[in-house]
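tool_log.txt
---
The assistant was asked to compare two proteins side by side. It first ran the structure predictor on the initial sequence, then on the second. Raw inputs and outputs are pasted verbatim so the downstream comparison step can read them without reformatting.
(1)
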Amino acid sequence: MTRATVRGAAAMLAIAALVSTLLTLQQTPAGAIGGNLSPALHTRVMSDGLTLPWDLAFIDDGAILFTERPGRLKVRFRDGRVMRVDADLRDLFARGESGLLGLELHPDFATNRRFYTCQGHTGPQIQVIGWTLSADATSATRFADPLVGGIPLVTGRHGGCRVRFGPDDNLWIATGDAAKSSTPQSLASLGGKVLRVDPDTGAGVADNPFANSANRNARLIYSYGHRNLQGLDLRPGTDEMWTVEHGPSRDDEINRIVAGGNYGWDPGPGYNEGVPMTDLAAFPNAVEAQWSTGSPTLAMSGGTWITGRHWGPLQDTFAVASLKNRSLRFFDFTAEGEFLAMEIGDELSGTFGRLRTPVMAPNGLLYVTTSNGSNDRIIEIAPTGAPRGSLDSVRAVDGRVRAAGWAIDPNRTGVIPVRVVIDGEFLTKKRSGRRRPDVGRAFPDYGARHGFVAWFDVPKGTHEVCIEAVDVGKRRQGPVRLGCRTITV
């Protein structure tokens, strides 16, 4: 890991020179803390041979649902099979930067099987579509067609588009300005905005900043004055949505979104891309970025917050992928949003080409998609030493509960202990010593005895069952959660 630290008010002024130094000299600049303060990253290719995988989400039994921008919805199953989901995408507009883009599961996906995509439509326009996935994940049908429509699109340029649920179970939508001069500052347009809508109806939320506007589009808007939003994620433990945004020739931005905020992008007549990303001369009250690249840009794309003590100093950082710079960066911010430090994952820099979207998995590992146009991949990233595994099944049998799965420690070939946690409370400990030939095939260096089965009793009712593993070499960092499931007894 390459680490650079800039503190206090000087952070925003010094960042351009800092990034340039890191990229060209690869040495510790003045004012930086040198040394490898974070864990090395272990990478594993989960799927390859893909075409522009844009976003992903984790569904049943460790399966991954993902979009490919040219117009394919796919599932990677736990055994490594990748299958196309049968979904009606005949109205897809896949041209330029547009196509099948953002993807997000409904918070109650386990019961209602609903998910959402942000995608180009032959209008042309960008639409958010609501889908229902079949129980076997082989087909999807539309239940909201569209949930939100009329997001501007002209040639396919600056189509955004990311969708994520917020702390209030409302759906947030990050859009691009369609490279149209009038859209970012117009409250009548859905382009260049962060929207917040009801996931069932697509209507604006009652306390949105422009909820009382006579204009329907304005009622959906949470913030405006954006150029081309690419990343969107909720900061854990807060109600803050953070975004990643493409700049023109300078100033890719990381922003913390505030209600009614104007983020200052206004290219004016002729779409003048020489104006500042946050034009304080034109908009003195514009919201300034929490971090920006300066010049040149990195073509930063998706972003996600890193969670879990097994990530060490990288815990609670904001991981951002970049296309042009082909790197994964971890940004450290204070609770108040002040930038503290940035680390570059050297293990990924240039190794896999252009990086599009990082997403945290339920098992505490990080998954990243590439965007090279051919033989693209989904990559699993773990801090070295972090146990890996899965809670594959939990079921009631004759009044008792049976939980089964697998666990390994990347740094040792032997079996490791796993902890069974019920409703947040430790219940018992087992060892991962049962035969699992599928695990042996996936990890040939570790053998096949890494499965576990745990039997236990719980009171009648609905319970959350979780499995954790402890990295023997890093006990002080606490257990790593490998998976959770809900069961009714």
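(2)
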Amino acid sequence: MDLLLALIAGLITGFVFTLIKLPIPAPPVWSGVVGIIGVLSGSQLFNYLFR
């Protein structure tokens, strides 16, 4: 459910920012998105291994 709400919030945010011609508050390329996922995954892996 949290993922669905986050997706909906992101879609609305992206739509509104584009509508009013502001730069989107996210990396403009997929490599940036993958980098963010990598940072989150690394943090989760650390917590799994050492806590």
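---
observation on (2): The chain has one domain: 2-50. The radius of gyration is 14 Å.
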